[in-house]
């Protein structure tokens, strides 16, 4: 007996795969050119706007759930199986398309989410020194120690910005007190988790 032929994916799979790509482009890769109107016009032109909006929202919600949990393949399979059994859920064909999409895009989407969650600039380096003031408008400030702090700020792979600050003894004490409060808060958080 001959082996059964590999079935071609159902016709509805290609537009769904493209829709998932479009959602990922807009939500995770920062492509502002991907709009709902563009996706509907290119992929589901026969669908009514409300019908397409519902499909896009459902697929976007599923993709968001999968991505925010950074599901591995076992978790994904369990999640998609539950979605196929749910009233108003997805079809097994849709689940197969989503699984294939996630296998191909998981790492890239995960990296994008990490990059989106970071603040723009990070402290790359910090240098300091203590000087004595040799000039001042007020004579009583001459020969007082000042701390000069230079901070290098920037994103990895991009040119840095430098911030130079001058602190007198009172400002250094104030800064150290605030840093101590931050350290205490962080220590409390790490001890409770």
User: Count the strands?
Assistant: 3
Radius of gyration: 28 Å
Portion in strands: 5-15%
- Put simply, the count of helices is 6
Major beta sheet summary: 3 strands, antiparallel
Percent of residues in helices: 40-55%
- H and E order: HHHHHEEEH
Alpha-beta classification: alpha+beta
Characterize the quaternary organization of these chains.
single chain
Q: Can you describe this structure in just a few lines?
A:
By secondary structure, the chain is of the alpha+beta class. The chain has six helices and three strands; from the N terminus they run αααααβββα.
Tell me what the structure shows:
The chain has six helices and three strands; from the N terminus they run αααααβββα. A hairpin with a 6-residue loop joins β2 and β3. With 193 residues, it is α+β, with helices and mostly antiparallel strands. Strands 1-2-3 form a three-stranded antiparallel β-sheet. Mean pLDDT is 86; it is low at 1-10. It starts with 12 loop residues before the first helix and ends with a helix.
Secondary structure blueprint with pairings:
Blueprint: H1 13-27, H2 36-43, H3 49-68, H4 73-85, H5 92-117, E1 122-132, E2 145-154, E3 161-167, H6 169-192
Antiparallel strand pairs: 1-2, 2-3
Helix pairs in contact: 1-3, 1-5, 3-5, 4-5
């Amino acid at each position: 007996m001959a082996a059964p032929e590999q079935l071609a994916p159902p016709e509805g799979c290609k537009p769904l795969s493209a829709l998932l790509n479009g959602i990922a482009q807009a939500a995770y890769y920062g492509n502002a050119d991907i709009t709902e109107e563009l996706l509907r016009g290119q992929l589901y032109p026969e669908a009514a706007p409300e019908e397409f909006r519902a499909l896009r929202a459902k697929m976007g919600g599923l993709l968001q759930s999968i991505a925010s949990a950074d599901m591995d393949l076992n978790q994904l399979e369990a999640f998609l199986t539950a979605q196929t059994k749910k009233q108003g859920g997805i079809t097994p064909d849709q689940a197969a398309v989503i699984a294939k999409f996630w296998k191909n895009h998981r790492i890239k989407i995960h990296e994008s989410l990490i990059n989106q969650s970071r603040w723009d600039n990070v402290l790359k380096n910090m240098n300091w020194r203590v000087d004595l003031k040799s000039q001042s408008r007020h004579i009583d400030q001459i020969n007082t120690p000042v701390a000069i702090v230079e901070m290098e700020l920037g994103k990895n792979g991009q040119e840095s910005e430098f911030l130079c600050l001058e602190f007198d003894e009172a400002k250094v004490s104030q800064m150290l007190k605030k840093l101590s409060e931050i350290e205490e808060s962080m220590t409390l958080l790490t001890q409770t988790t």
